[in-house]
Amino acid sequence: MVFPWSAPSRATQMQNLKEKHFDVLVIGGGCVGNGIALDAATRGLGCAVVEREDFAAGTSGRSTKLIHGGVRYLEAAVKKLDKGQYDLVKEALGERAHMIGAAPYIARPIPIMIPLEHWWQVPMMWIGTKLYDFIAGDGLCVPPSMFIGRHQARYSFPTLNAQHIYGAIVYYDGQMNDTRYALLVALTAAQAGATTANHVNIDELVVDERTGRVSGALATDQITGENFHIRAKSVINATGPFTDKVRRMAFDAVNKAKGVDTVKGDSDEKWDRDIVVPAGGIHVMLPDHFSPAQMGLIVPETSDGRVLFFLPWEGGTLCGTTDSEAPISMHPSATKEEVDFVLAESSRYLNKKVRRSDVLAAWSGLRPLVKDPNKGDTKSISREHIVEVNDGNMVTIAGGKWTTYRQMAEDAIDKVLELYPSLSKVASSCQTKNMMLVGSDRAHIVCDQRFDNIMITLREDYGFDRDIAEHLTRNYGTRALQIAEIVKDGYVTRKPGLHPKRLVAKYPFLEAEVVFAVEQEYALTAEDVLARRTRLAFVDQKAAVEALPLVVDLMGRLLNWNSRTKKDQIQKGLEFLDTMNVNFDEEE
User: In b/e form, how buried is each residue of 260-281, taking b as 16+ CB within 10 angstroms?
Assistant: First the structure.
């Protein structure tokens, strides 16, 4: 008999934060912060990771959902003979193979079409994508690229306006559900012994006056309001767009320990300079009929020189563009002008007009590019990641991309071990390169990593509809069976043995997922469930608004919320969901 792993309770994790003395404290629960916790724990270090909001609530949950090396970066590397860009692509392609292999049920290859208007574009693009395949080498993990003619392109992507194209190149990258992937990393870290806690704010860093080193933090439990002290030998800043805020906290804490009252601008030292340069990406969710279920489309250059993409994702079409200017925000939202631009550009390349009324959800995501403080030219923007040692020996990891999160985590821990020889004596080498995540049937005893068998079991043994079985398998792997058992056994608002109840009729998200999210995935707010355990807020904003009262009622019963807390969760949920679409003043 197989007994599934059960995550430590939040109460246990919070007790650990208050009582243990950690080797490493990681600030930031995005993909990199969670990856650092996993890397540290599997090396034998005592580690805690804390996140002010929810795991992957920021940049990590607002990506294009692609696991990629960067075809554009390779093009720049060739044109400019830039070895740095080439190395970035090579590293990312290696990590692409790792990500797909680590959780193959939630990360999978996706073909992406690049339409070409002229015959003379074919040789250059064909050579470029074949070079992309070649660089991946043994880590290709996806089918090779190929050229297809105009008629095949029209067949493969029926909504493409193929009237003026000669043909297309189809290449492969990976695709994932980003927030759930980041959560899997956090859960695997917890399984390895790390303390993982969301909704914990770092109020102030603490410096050991004897050594002058940052040695922990004063924190607040955002759920209960309780203040407490987290003790640690070392601290890593992995806060993405908020990197500079935490760097500043270290600066203030170290000077406070010296008896100096710091004011921003007093020092020209490199650790007091902002290094983050946020680049925004606009994402618009359209109905599924705008793209086929098994093919993406990328237009290399829009009217303003950016990239436009169409990707099948979570039962819809994810459309958008990258590299727009954006202020730093936890919940960046798309503007009407940005959405209208995406819709207008989309209508140019599709054979059907994309209207405002087609938009199901719209949001913005930030990519925290960085200026390398270790280089003399601070104006140069790096698309690679950097590891910086701040005053007080706090380590900052910044920049990079989702695909390289594991390598970034390894580099951050390597730097800590370099700074703290006592830790390097007890830590092993990096263990994550070939490590699979929870739900992947690592022991080959549930389905022998043939996840279609999970889907068949859900349909035949539990009687689930096909779309529900597919959704659960693709997002939970073997843990989908735990959700099926919740349905079978019943829960606080549902009798045993009934058919699974959906949150809304048109999508496969279930009430049982809410129960599982609360009991096994540290979901503490309605937003956690609607935005990041399920992706309903990103898939269809109006459907998420419809589901909000049901989610709050169910979570309230599970978490013993009083009427005031339920009302507060409804209000906060509506405020968040208001950022997930654009309210156009007039109808077309």
Answer: eebeeeeeeeebbeebbbbbbb
Q: What's the whole-number mean pLDDT along residues 10-24?
A: 98
Strands (E), 491-571: none
73 within 8 A of 89, measured Cβ to Cβ: yes
pLDDT score for 395: 98
pLDDT at 9 over 90: yes
* CB contact at 8 A, 178 and 532: no
Q: Checking phi first, is residue 322 left (phi over 0); if not, alpha (psi -120 to 50) or beta? A: beta
Structure tokens given for 421: 């020889």
Confirm if 483 and 512 have CB atoms less than 8 A apart. yes
For β-strands 381-382 and 308-313, DSSP reports them as unpaired
48 sits in which H/E element:
strand 47-50
Closest CA to 388 of 279, 269, 258: 269
Question: Which residues, 6 or more positions from 216, have their beta carbon under 8 angstroms from its beta carbon?
Answer: 25, 205, 206, 229, 230, 231, 232, 235
Q: What is the pLDDT of residue 325?
A: 66
pLDDT > 50? residue 268: no
Residue 146: enclosing H or E segment and its boundaries?
strand 146-149
Task: Give the Cα separation of 457 and 312 in Å (integer).
Answer: 26
CB distance 468 to 458 below 8 Å: yes
Summarised one tens digit per residue, pLDDT across range 464-514 is: 999 999 999 999 999 999 999 999 999 999 999 999 999 999 999 999 999
* Contacts (Cβ under 8 Å, ≥6 apart) of 514: 503, 523, 529, 533, 534, 551, 554, 555, 558
Among 80, 97, 10, 88, smallest CA distance to 50 is for: 10
Closest CA to 224 of 11, 530, 526: 11
The torsion angles phi and psi of 179, rounded to 5 degrees, stand at: -65, -40
